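Entry 0007
Protein: DUF4385 domain-containing protein
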Amino acid sequence: MTQGRGTKFNYDLNFKETDFRKNPELYRVGKGEQGVLLVEPYKSEILPHWRFKTPEIARESSEHIYGLFLDYVQQKDFVGADMARKFLQMGYTRSRRYANHRTGQKYKGPVPDDKKGQSGAHGREQLPIDPDPVKAESARIFKVKWDEAKENPEYQQLMKEFRERCES
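Output (structure tokens):
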């Protein structure tokens, strides 16, 4: 099975009280970055290291998070490895957003209350592009580490085994 397929991410779980290290069978890969800011204890372990303001900060951040990714893979902790991969992906996507929109605002107007926490325009107009080459370099740095993570053969094997065991 390839990335992004399988059972949908379950947003109905009690994330404040669920320890996914103790209950990995409750985790679902979902698509892209789904759950990146919900799944504990991994969010608390990885988020403090996630930064992209400058290329130097992005390099340090992406290398640290990739190191965590490798540690999780070595421990055969698929959920941790997948969360680290999601943080690397989010480093890329958020840097790209700021590379294209200096304010970080991609769409005009507020997100409707019933759509908060979901991605997408939700009918809002996209703002014009205002390029920031510094953030573009931060995005490039995160993209390299994100690609390394998702192409890691041990991670791919862990994902295959996890999906066969928990998402079938």
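Curator remark: The helical segments are 42-46, 55-74, 78-100, 133-151, 153-166. Confidence is low (pLDDT under 50) at residues 1-5.
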